[in-house]
Amino acid sequence: MARTNIRNHLLDMGFGQISCFSNGRELKANLKGQKLDLLLMDFHLGQNKNGVEVLQDLQKQKQITHTTCVMFITSDRLPLIIGQIVDVHPEALVVKPYTIRNLVKNISNCLALHQYLMPVFEMMDDDNYPQALVVLDHLIEENAQPKKKSALIKLRARLLTKLSRFSEAADLYRSILERSDKVIWAKWGLIQNLFLDDHVEESETLLHELTRSELTNDKACEWLARISVSNNQYSKAENYMHQIREGELSIPAARLKSYIYQAQERGHEAIALLEKKRESNRSIRERYDEISLDLARCYITEAELRSNTQRTSDLKVAKFLIGAAGRKLSDPSLTIRKDYMFANIAFLEGNLVKANEILSRPGMSELQDAEISTITDAVQAWRNTGDTEKAKEFLKLSQEKLRDINDGNEKTVSSMLVAKGEDAIGERRPQALEFNKIGLQKYTFKNYIEATEDFYNAYLLFPRELAFSLNLLQGLVHAELLSYKKVNTLEFLTELQNRELNEGNQKRLDDIVSRITKKKDVFFLASETEGQASNDDENKKRTQRIVTPAKPNH
User: Fold this and answer.
1) CA-to-CA distance for 71 and 89, rounded, in angstroms?
2) 8 A C-beta contact, residue 448 and residue 479
3) Angle 206-207-210 from CA coordinates, rounded to 5°
4) What pTM did the predictor assign?
5) In this predicted model, what pLDDT tens digit does every residue of 509-540 receive, in sequence order?
6) Nearest to residue 55, comparing CAs of 140, 400, 47, 63?
7) With contact defined as beta carbons under 8 Å apart, do 492 and 476 qualify?
8) Residue 476: inside a domain, yes or no?
9) Residue 5 burial (10 A CB sphere; 0-12, 13-18, 19+)
10) pLDDT under 50 in the chain at which residues?
11) CATH of the domain at 82
């Protein structure tokens, strides 16, 4: 009824070609060969993906581009919902109940502004961002309508970010906030550009301020978690994610949290989280299927960590989840996505014939439009066949696609998947081993600070290798360094204590802990001087174990 009413009013406004759809799948199926001037999107679409998810999918597949004017309509006033809508930069947001006069006015104004900016949007669609900025600056200079100014400045800041002119974009957002500190999108824009311009501490300070408001807390915690992940501080990232109520985790946020668990070898917690999210989305079939595939990938990862004889149950569950996902849909891209997962399962089962048969199916090499998760699955599969060149080709494709991702949570999760692909190819490992070897030589001659630099470089190349991490921590302690570049010694200790360690590595860590305890005048008193006194009791509790010293790992 709502769609019919809006359609009638659009007809009265003079629109001749109007299509109506009840969900994203219907819209996507009818978009081929069509160019939309205006997309009116509701947020809630019944038992289907919400409007923001649909728009993001269409934008990634380039079925909706900058030249389409997008407006959202919703009856929901929750900060979480409004925040999701604002993040996709619609031209307008109309909150129900609305009057026809208000709707007509919004549509007319949005289309007029969109037409005015059309030359800029066309260049953005062609990825010609430098020229788009030149044209936009000309429009700003000649603009005589104050009501347009805010939209023009907002677009200019987005273009500066896209062109990696982060300091200029930050200054532009600051100028907006100087006039009014209530402009939330300007705060997020400032934080993003400060972070990208390596002013991480300043961006973190602003984010901590935003955690004090219910309106912005969840998004700020997600941001802080992503920053922690970029520094390999997974325990710290987990603490930020715990500040978001589990029932209010968006799907991208739940996915991020599950990968943070997996990075700490706590796959059972990742599985438990995704199981809950999957069950709560059972009625939303598309989302349910996507979570099922994420869950299957968790089980595959768990199987990789087990011996051949212990993998059976994990792989059985993974196969069930993959087989059930999208069973009623005839989507070729989904079929390829599932086939790569089945191929990796076949390898883990030792069934090379089956794996090769799957990889020989039509379309398995056509991944230009695939998700990064599928491409990194392909990297793993082709590496398993011994076709390293093909694995490298897909790894390069995943790295290229990573640059174009705008959503923060998706980008962080994709970065972790790409890093896993890089580890699988093994290109970084020889380099890391060389740094580690040089560091060990310097350590032997008690050149602890110089050794720490080499251990740090090895750790950056291969952060999940425990030997490199433990060597770095040991170098930091012997050099009596509270921090080195992006690594804080006590926070790094916490990270390692949250990892699954074998007996030998646990002994090494216990020895390092005992050394820190003996040097508490360096680590704990200095921490208090730096304003970290509140953490001392917890850190002292962690450092009460003393065991036999161990040598650095070769």
Assistant:
1) 9
2) yes
3) 95
4) 0.82
5) 999 999 999 888 888 755 555 544 444 444 44
6) 63
7) yes
8) yes
9) exposed
10) 531-551
11) 3.40.50.2300
